[in-house]
Structures are given as C-alpha cells and as structure tokens.
Amino acid sequence: MDSKYDLVVIGGGPGGYPGAIRASQLGLRVALVEADRLGGECTNYGCIPTKALLKPANTIWSIRSMKFVKGELDLDFNEYISWVSSIVERISGGVEMLLKGYGVDLYRGEAKLLDRNTLYVENIGEIKAEKILIATGTNPSELPLLKVDGEVIHNNRTILRIRRKPSSILIVGGGYIGVEFASLYAKIGVEVHLAEIMPNLLPGMDQDLSRAAERMLKNLGVKIRTNTTVKSIEKRQNEAHVELSSGEKLSVEKILVAVGRKPRSENLGLREVGVELDEKGYIRVDGSMRTSVENIYASGDITGPPLLAHRAFMQSLVAAENAAGKKVLYDPRAVPSVIFTEPEMAFVGMSEEEARKNGYKPKSLKMPLGGVARAVIEGGEEGFAKIIYDEDTKQLLGFVAMAPHASEIVSEATLAIEMGASIEDLSLTIHPHPTISEIFGEISELALGRPKHFLIRKRQK
C-alpha cells in the first residue's frame, strides 16, 4: 500500500473513533483499523447492551412494586435479547456511518506495529502513518478455576448471547459490573448469588455507596457472600456445582465471571517500537496523550483506570488535536462514575481523604432524599446525597449520590467542581421543581445551616 496517512487509529471504540473523526475535521488524512465491531467494548458488550437490558427489567420491577397494579408481568427472554441486539447494531452502525461521512478510511483486521510509522493489518498489508493513536481497550479478566466456555461459565461478553433465561446464576465479583448484573437478573426472576473476595461490594468506592448497594441487592433477594472465593467447580449437564471458600456448596445454571479487566496491549508490537508500558501492561502517556514514542499516542482504557467510556471520549479528542499540531492537555478536575442500579449510584471528585492529601480542609455532609418530592414519587426516598467541600472556602470537592437519575444529575456536580464552584453557588442556583436535581440546593443549604426541607433539631441543654 503506497498511500500514507497523517494519522492511523487502532481501535474503533470510545478511545478511537472520536479521535479519528476530530482529526479528520482538523484536516488530517485519517484511517481507522478495527478487528471487531465498531463501538468497542462500550457499544457492543458494556455500556449500551447492559443499560438496554436494565431498562425493561427496571420498568417491570417498578410496576410490580406498585401494590395497586394488578395482574402478572413477564418478558419473552429471547425477544428481549433480540431487542437489545438491535440497539447495539444500530449504534455500532451509526459509528460506521459517521466515520464514512467524515472521510475516515476503515480497515478491518488485527493490527501490529512494524516500526514507528508502519502498521501491518491482516488481509490488508502495510499501512504507513505519520502519527498513530493506540486505542485497543481492554478484555475481561479471567480466573484459572473459572475458564469461560460460553455455555455454563460466562464473562460480560458471552452472557449477552444466551437466549433462555437461566433459573439461577452465580456472579463472581462484586464490582460495578457484578452489581449491575445482579440487580438485572434479580428483577427478572433469576435466583442470584454474588461472591466477592473483598469485605464489601464495590471495593475501592465510597463506603456509603457500598453499604447502599448491599442493602439494595438484599432487598431484591440477592444472596451475597463477601470475603468469599470459589474453591472448586464441577460442571454436570449444563449446570455447575460450586464449592465456596466458606465450605458452602451451590448448584447454579450459569456463572458470570466479573472480576475486572486487563489491557489489550499484547501482540501489538508496542515494546518492539519503544512504547513504554506499566507493570500491568497499560500504556504510559503524558497529558497530551503522547506515549514514550513521540509520534505515537494512546487513549481510553488502554491507558489505565478509571476504565470509563466518557473518559475515553475526551482522551481521544485530546490525542487527535495534539496529533494535528494543537497543544491541548487532558487534565480534568473531575471524572464522574456511575453504577446503573435502581436507584442509580454516582460519584465524582475527591473523597475526604483525597481532599486532605491535596491540602484542603475537607468536610462532608450526607443527606437522605426524603425531603426531595421527586425522589418520593419515584420510590427513591431511601437514597442519599453527600457532598465533600472545603471548610474554609466552601468549594465543592466531591459529590456522591444514590438517587433516581443520579447518572444525569452528577453532571451538574462535575461542572461545579471543574469551575471551582462553592456550595453557596449551588444553593443560589434555581433548580426546577419537582426534580431530583433539587438535592443540590437542599444539601448545600443544609451545609450552610439554612435548609428548607430538612429539620435541624436543636439539642436539649
């Protein structure tokens, strides 16, 4: 192939295709190489299909929970999965349409770097590039004892292919993937067991969210075991007989392994051309998303945690703009995270410990949602919101919530943190009524000692 591109992007997920589009908008000749389906993990196996799965499950559960609604509700599992697949295909197809519309050449196949300016793509041949953007993402992590077979033992990808609702499932891993799937399957009538090696669910996240997740799942009937691993497994006729580290024995129809992710950095020729990796195999980058090789950039999950699609989008754009000669840095103050349970859980910014380490004098305040009318209407009054702010300046440093639509309202907290807003600013912002977003005014005013819908009881002397 004698043509040479200004930029070649390896990977068509959130860390890749936005950068390809932006680079083309900036006048670069761009190609994108993708070995699987466009949209990456997010579109095909993660964000999109899981949220599509959750929508009907949450709707059915919500209606069933209304005691005045009579009659039975159920779903046709095969049609349910087909509907989810149709959404995935539509969004993946939309990515291809955008790439073509912006003049990005698309090549299908595995790519490997031959040198700093040359890639080899299977079934295509060599492609020359002035600059290269690596956005290959991650794969599901595996456990030696639980080899994924796509029949009984699954990861987050293969579980989407099953066409018959299982009667029971063991989910190994209590991170956000495990918690979301546990919530989903419990709501559609599957007996759910959840085993987590750490002492609590959502390890590494806010403790209030962890406790809330455990309460929520227990209320759904999920049987949770923490400090627990799988000791042995025996598969018999499409069923698994499992012994846990506690000695307890279970028989389940399916097992979902949800124990994290590993970088897709092998077999790309990265080390051979001098791209530096960390001890876990993630690519090291600077603020411009440049690797240790000057003309090679990386963005998205391949650069390490947090593994979030929206973070990958932004990094991809930064990489593309720098590849086009601009000087842009990826240096956000706040990257929001969401666990799509119901109510949803979201957090952004610093914890008290992180704020203290960064030189602030942090205070935190937690408030139940009982005083927010929309939360009561939507059955989320047992949720909460929490703010972390600097005691002296009242600057907002962090926000945590378990609330209906938490995935949407966390954006306001993200913007406030990015702009250095104070809780006084939040308290003076008019929020529409009745909405969940009113929690910002309520909790800010509570912190300032002047709440409207929260009673402060004076202590008896």
Describe this structure in words.
- It is a single chain.
- With 461 residues, the chain is of the alpha/beta class.
- The protein folds into 3 domains: 4-140 and 262-323, 3-Layer(bba) Sandwich (FAD/NAD(P)-binding domain), CATH 3.50.50.60; 153-259, FAD/NAD(P)-binding domain; 337-447, FAD/NAD-linked reductase, C-terminal dimerisation domain (Enolase-like, domain 1).
- The chain contains 13 helices and 22 strands.
- It has helices spanning 17-25, 40-44, 47-64, 77-101, 176-187, 207-219, 270-273, 309-323, 352-357, 373-377, 406-418, 423-428, 439-447; strands at 4-10, 30-34, 105-108, 111-115, 118-121, 125-134, 138-140, 153-154, 168-172, 191-195, 223-225, 230-235, 240-244, 249-252, 254-257, 261-263, 296-298, 337-339, 344-349, 362-368, 384-390, 396-403.
- The strands form 5 sheets. Strands 1, 2, 3, 4, 5, 6 and 17 form a 7-stranded mixed β-sheet that branches.
- It is globular, with a radius of gyration of 24 Å.
Helix content: 25-40%
Compute the number of structural domains: 3
Q: Roughly how many Å apart are the termini?
A: 85 Å
Mean pLDDT: 95
Indicate the CATH topology of the largest domain.
Answer: FAD/NAD(P)-binding domain
Supply the CATH superfamily name of the largest domain.
FAD/NAD(P)-binding domain
Give the tally of β-strands.
Answer: 22
Largest sheet composition: 7 strands, mixed
Radius of gyration: 24 Å
**CATH uppermost class of the largest domain:** Alpha Beta
What is the CATH architecture term of the largest domain?
3-Layer(bba) Sandwich
Proportion of strand residues: 15-25%
Structural class: alpha/beta
Shape: globular
Count of alpha/pi helices = 13
Poorly predicted runs of 5 or more residues: none
